[in-house]
Structures are given as C-alpha cells and as structure tokens.
Specification:
131 residues; globular
Length: 131
C-alpha cells in the first residue's frame, strides 16, 4: 500500500500533539504539509516532520496552498473551530479526504452544508474524537 500523504491544518496544541504522538506512528501516513496562522508553528511543524520522514514538507500560512498541492491526499483539520467547516468543505471539493476534529461546527446549518458537500463529492470525511 502506498502512503497517504497528509496535511495538518492547525499546528497548535491539538494538531502538533496528534501529529507527533499519533500520525507519526501510523506507517501508512506521511505528513507532507503543515499549515497554521502562525509562522513559528509552521516552522516547528516543518522541522518535526522533515526530521521524521526525511523529505521536504510544505509549510504555509494559507490552507489553500495545502488544498492545491498535488502532494496531499488527506487533510487533518485541527485549526480553530470557527474555520473547521470552511476548511473541510473546501478540502472535500478538492478531493482531499478529511479527518475533522470534533467540535467542528457552530450550527446545524454548517453540519447540513458538510453533509451536502459529502453527498455532492463523495469525498470521505471522518470525525476525530479526542477523548
């Protein structure tokens, strides 16, 4: 099986912890992109993942760079909750599999948008419980 090339959108406390303590131990996954709104988090994520995989990792402040990358198959969404649905929907429309941290929506309407996007794209999405 080929590796799933995964991006992490949101490399704060949750995103960095899950990456280093979970994603790095799944042999079928290789983190190929790190995105955060803060440059120091991006730099930390790029360094940690380049050390782990020995490959160049995309580091960016703009999640659109991740979604437009041909080197990303899936996106782990761990950014601030208010951006979860926006990132997940755009990722699904780009054909990127989504792993979405729970707490991903503020309204029923946002969840309906998420379901409609899945029905339109058939792009897999999984809610990631963190307890």
């Amino acid at each position: 099986m080929e590796k799933i090339r995964m991006a992490v959108v949101g490399y704060g406390q949750r995103g960095s912890y899950v990456t280093v303590h979970s994603l790095h131990f799944i042999k079928e996954i290789e983190v190929t992109a790190i995105c955060d709104l803060y440059q120091d988090r991006v730099d930390k994520g790029v360094q940690e993942n380049e050390e782990k995989y020995g490959n160049k990792v995309l580091g960016t402040l703009d999640y659109h760079d991740v979604l437009n990358s041909d080197n990303v198959d899936a996106v782990y969404v761990a950014c601030s909750w208010e951006y979860h649905i926006e990132v997940a929907i755009e990722a699904m429309k780009k054909g990127k599999i989504v792993a979405l941290e729970v707490g991903g929506a503020y309204s029923i309407d946002e969840l309906h948008r998420l379901v409609r996007t899945y029905e339109e794209t058939k792009t897999p999405i999984m809610f990631m419980e963190n307890c």
